Amino acid sequence: MVIALVLIFVFLIVWRGLFVPNPQERYTVSYSELMREINGKNIASVTIKGLQVSGEFINDVTIRPPGEKTERKVKRFLTYLPSFQGEGILKVLSDKGVDVDVVPSEQRSFLWQLVAGLLPWLLIIGVWVFLMKRAQQVQGGPGGLFSFSSSKARRYEFTEKAKVTFQDVAGMENAKQELGETIQFLKEPAKFRDIGAKIPRGVLLIGPPGTGKTLLARAVAGEAEVPFFSISASEFIEMFVGVGAARVRDMFKKARVSHPSIIFIDEIDAVGRTRGAGLGGGHDEREQTLNQLLSEMDGFEPHEEVILIAATNRPDVLDPALLRPGRFDRQIVIERPGWKDRKAILEVHVRDKKLSEDVDLDKMARGTPGMTGADLENLVNEAVLVAVRRGKEKAGMEDFEEARDKV
Known about the structure:
Blueprint: H1 2-19, E1 26-28, H2 31-39, E2 43-49, E3 52-63, E4 72-80, H3 86-95, E5 99-103, H4 110-140, E6 154-156, H5 173-187, H6 189-195, E7 202-206, H7 213-224, E8 228-232, H8 243-257, E9 261-266, H9 281-298, E10 306-312, H10 320-323, E11 330-333, H11 339-349, H12 361-366, H13 373-389, H14 397-406
Parallel strand pairs: 1-4, 2-5, 7-10, 7-11, 8-9, 9-10
Antiparallel strand pairs: 2-3, 3-4, 6-8
Helix pairs in contact: 1-4, 5-6, 5-7, 8-9, 11-13, 13-14
């Protein structure tokens, strides 16, 4: 930004030097003053260019330049002739013995004048476009100069190597069972339509941070082998009014084109708070985004196999309209894992770790009450780091004990 402003400033200085006359040593005098000095034989030389007359006095003349309060002595002067005094002043100058030089006035073509007038504006517009494109790249992604309304949802296509399934999600057996019919609907939608069943289109995952809500949603998409659109609710809101609602429309449009598919909105309480509390433009923008989200959830057609999964750890602040039947009518509570689930989670996270034979995951699971899946993943990683610091090739039980005390 600073570089662009400096470039514009330098260009304007150069432009002024090229196209604006430099009157530093010439001072404008009146036509009457000029005639008085001519009659007084105080003119050394004169250059006439159209109606413009410039030249030098023999002796310095004291004048008060326009716009100045003090008088000064000047040697060079500049004035303009009346249109009817073309040949008359030439005769007067000739009679007084003044050296006269007549030069043709410059007549620039219309095209040149047009280019000279437009070039500064074209430069300013070009710099502005460049800065806007750079700002958009910093904010994340292509899409044109005015792509603020494009959805920022990230799309995941599942391959055999990148696919996340229920085997990667330890514990949460009740949640897996409740999501089983959602997976079947995405795999075989005709089976449900033929019997007249209406599958819940909105699933709300409720649980403390780190319990694996996002991982569970990705596992549902991996089990069903459908595209997965993931976004945080805070990414809908921008400083421009209406952008959030436009991004919601764009996201659902992309999901419908790719159906069957899953949309996952993390931390939905960022836009799904109860309406009517608070004032301000940001609040109004959030309400517009929520209204558009409610409208899109009502607009699902029977042939559109799109499931909306959202996650929150604050269900008490959500708007009642978001939780009514027909929208998020399937609510799944994910609790902190018990010791059996913690053991299963530890077994998942130590798959690619080198462990000593003395590592007892059962004992470690019983000794970590209250820890979530994210806490246990951090515990395993910290134990491996402790082993590396001690110069070991494998992580042992004492490393896990120290890591547990640390985290």
